[in-house]
Amino acid sequence: MLDSLRRGAQTLVAKILLGLLVASFAVWGISGSITSMSTDSIASVGDTDIRIADFQRAYQFETQAIVRQLGQPLTPSQAAAFGIPQRVLGRMMSEAALTDAANAFGIGISDERLAAEIAADPSLQRDGKFDRAYFSQLLRSNNLNEASYIEERREAERRGQLVDGLFGGIKAPAALTEAVVSYGSEVRDVDYVRITAANVGTIAPPDDATLATWFETRKGDFRAPEYRSATVMTLTPEAIADPAAITPEQVTAEYERNKASYGKPERRLVQRILFPNADEARAALDRINGGMTFDALAAERGLADADYDLGTVAKADVVDPAIADAAFALAAPGMSEPVETRFGAALVRVVAIEPESVAPLAEIEPQIRAELAAAEARRVAGEMQQDIEDALAGGATLAEVAAQFKLTTTPLPEMDSTGAGTDGQPVAGLPQAQTFLTDLFQSDVGVENAPLQVGRDGTAWFEVTKVTPGRDRSLDEVRAQAVAAWTAEEAARKVDVSAEAIFRAVKGGADFAAEAAKAGLTVETSPKFTRRSADTAIGPDAQEAAFGGPEGFVAMSAGPDESRIVLKVRNAVPIPYFAESSDAIEAQTKLSEEMENGVLAQYIDHLQTTLGSSVNQQTLQAILGTSGG
């Protein structure tokens, strides 16, 4: 948490959802002092408001992140189930609390320092330097403009200064670090045997009476689930799009209307040097006019290439409008007059110009035709969707509607609530599978069902065609499976008995090798391992058990692949502690961060309590599209 605040907002995600890891602070029905709140705010802490627009943007951003992971849209109730509203508002109220405190301390950041932080942000760089085009792309994709980004970045930097100043010096005690490192670095090896089903001999099949008695106690394991079949009808713009129906006149008109987007804008190689004021900029220009080079001036001011070279950029990619105007006003490569920018006076130099280029119509025609056809298909699909809904509401069946609108219905075979067919394999072609299965098993034959969204613009409708209730299967139906399950269970029981016998004997002082030999096993010695070792021969459960006592300690635990492990600790070797070791440094850093995070969480909680906080529940529920109950 603290480290993310120090970095300010090193990614656009962090800027929008500033990386505080405080999940939430009881943002539903917050108690404490009630603060005044402006009409365009959803919540407030002290004198700092959280604007509705900012919350909506952050909420949509995080919701879309989940949608991309799931590959399907989220309803408001599903978003709430993921905890998105609580997480977003809790984080924003944490930010607001810190902003209010930063205001009280009078913390600020100069324009020059802010510009340097933005330029040095690794997440905004390509090939080691600030990339204007990439920066602009990120702004557009996150519905931000330059002014709002700079203002929010300024607030993030101020919060970072506050947190770093208050908590940045916290260090984990040396004794704690030593204890943690020593605990994790102790090295052990064990003598062990691994007992598997192969070590307990062939399991004779059960007689009919034994199997029948056993089956009665396990009948639920073999129960047939409820199965349902359905018919689905799908409407998507892609299915009805017809590029051939687009006329040449439509293609030409679209090309002329958006010609600028079918090529590359003019780009210029731009450099700029900032000065404290216009007088210094003018003096520097006079020196350049007198023979000094721009690069020499930059070197004299201690600037690296990345500090003044903006790269080859389009006008829209330049963050500061004043610099963009000055650079693209020049008729040819050369120097501008001093200009006043957002970050001070500047001299702007254009080194080279790449003229605008536009792709010819013949080259771009297939793309335009496909785009127009897709747009027309979306319009038609929208109208068809409403007409289909009206027809279904009027009592028409899917088959009748499909015939009327020239769509196709697809029968889906019987499946259980997980989407598996009667053969146990997943049924293919389910529309929005998770929602479909839920709706399918909440519906019934003859019931009209809510449509399902398919992709971005498609819709699917379904009817339940058959319901086969769940039932207990008879032993005769599942005899082969029952015998296999009984045999596996009996083998596991014998493995446990064998392991238990070896464990008790060795724990009581018997020779490990001799006891293992009685069971036809050979004692093996493991490679050395620590508590943090991965992929040990004895498996994680036995590895943990091996640290349960000193040398000579005997333990029994689960092993890999349904086996059992009996082990005896052979060597337990503590590793000398060195405070300068990489393990010690890493552990102290992590422990310090955990302590910092804990103190910061308490500080934010204290701020929200003492400053007063409030949430406009009515506005929140309206934004989320949920009821307040």
UniProtKB/TrEMBL annotation:
It comes from the Bacteria. Its main location: membrane. It is a single-pass type II membrane protein. Keywords: Cell inner membrane, Cell membrane, Chaperone, Isomerase, Membrane, Rotamase, Transmembrane, Transmembrane helix. Residues 265-352 form the PpiC domain. It holds the Pfam family Rotamase_2. One of its GO terms (molecular function) is peptidyl-prolyl cis-trans isomerase activity. The chain crosses the membrane at residues 12-31. It is found in: Cell inner membrane. GO terms for cellular component: plasma membrane. InterPro entries: PPIase_dom_sf (IPR046357), PPIase_PpiC (IPR000297), PpiD_chaperone (IPR052029), Trigger_fact/SurA_dom_sf (IPR027304). Belongs to the PpiD chaperone family. This is Parvulin-like PPIase. The gene is ppiD.
